[in-house]
Write a structure and sequence with these properties.
This protein is mainly alpha-helical and about 130 residues long. The protein has helices at about 15-30, 35-65, 70-90, 95-125.
Length: about 130
Amino acid sequence: MALEWKQDYELGHPGIDAQHRYLFDLTNQMVAAHTSEQLKPLLMALYKHTREHFELEEGLMRQSGFPGLAAHAAYHNQLLSRLNSLSQDVGKGVVDRVAVGSLMSDWALRHIRFDDADAAAYIARG
């Protein structure tokens, strides 16, 4: 299940939008991976990207006084927890393609389009 980046996913912040496009690229590479050896370096890249991305997003929300920051950060932590669990499984040689697809779909198609879009709209009004 490849994910296609669409222009209507853009939030209007060049840095955030570039990071989100990279997330789509990583997602498609992860979904195409069939072995734990293929998935391990992608998960490492995703984890690094995620930490940097969430730091940028949450910093922008903090600066703007976004009232939903706590809930948004809590969801970020849930995504990281799911990513860590998936990484542990892959470390044991277990590749659960359904779990990979579910995590990345929730993140890319739901969180960006709704949660991040709400935050971006608030920040833009700032």
